[in-house]
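FORM 7B: Structural annotation worksheet

SECTION A. Query
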Amino acid sequence: MSNFEGKVVVITGAGGGIGEGYAKIFAGKGMKVVVAEINAEQGQRVADEINASGGKAVFVKTDVSDEESCKAAAAKAIETFGAIDYLVNNAAIFGGMEIKGYLDVDMNYLNKFMAVNMHGALLMTRAVVPLMKKGSAIVNQSSTAAWMNMGFYGVAKLALNGITTSLANELGWRKIRINAIAPGPTDTQALRGTVGDYADELVKTMPIKRLGKPEDMANAVLFLLSDESSWITGHILNVDGGQFMRV
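SECTION B. Predicted structure
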């Protein structure tokens, strides 16, 4: 794949789980990583571990539901590394989320949930696009839940798919591509803490009978960021072991 040496990537929600996997794997490819994370302790830990291993990373506390916080993260990337080549919108409320239906969920919680899981990617994109050059790329983190009628979590991801395709039209003239991946059940603490043993039941129904790994997601994201996908935009790529097949 493309040479990522020296490229600057902003990754939201990179303080744990799949996002932490992205940060460390991308640093291993030679990228300079901006760890944009709301949990200061976790975000700083990831940045410190990357720097200790010979990579380059900086942490910036980021609330993706807050426009000014997103702009500050973008400014920190420019201040520290001088450019933004890639954005990965990974941040979401998932681990420990409330499991309630639309008729029961508290509306204040729902509004905050959507502000993070739906509009967070839009706010970060709006913050970084003016600072990106031609040939830059963005990847949003959707989910197979978008097509599985899984309550407000699935609706947020379905909306994110729509935001991705709409932004692909808006960003095309700028020569900036935007795509998304839709992970299936991935073996993280957040998954286990949210669905418990149900994850194992999901695996039984899938053609490739194992949980995903952060590496599976990272490889897909790397492809969508790379020059090898230079004629791909507005695409939602399932990375799910065949859990959900669209025709």
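SECTION C. Observations
Residues 8-239 form a domain with the Rossmann fold fold (CATH 3.40.50.720). The mean pLDDT is 94.

SECTION D. Sign-off
Analyst initials: ____
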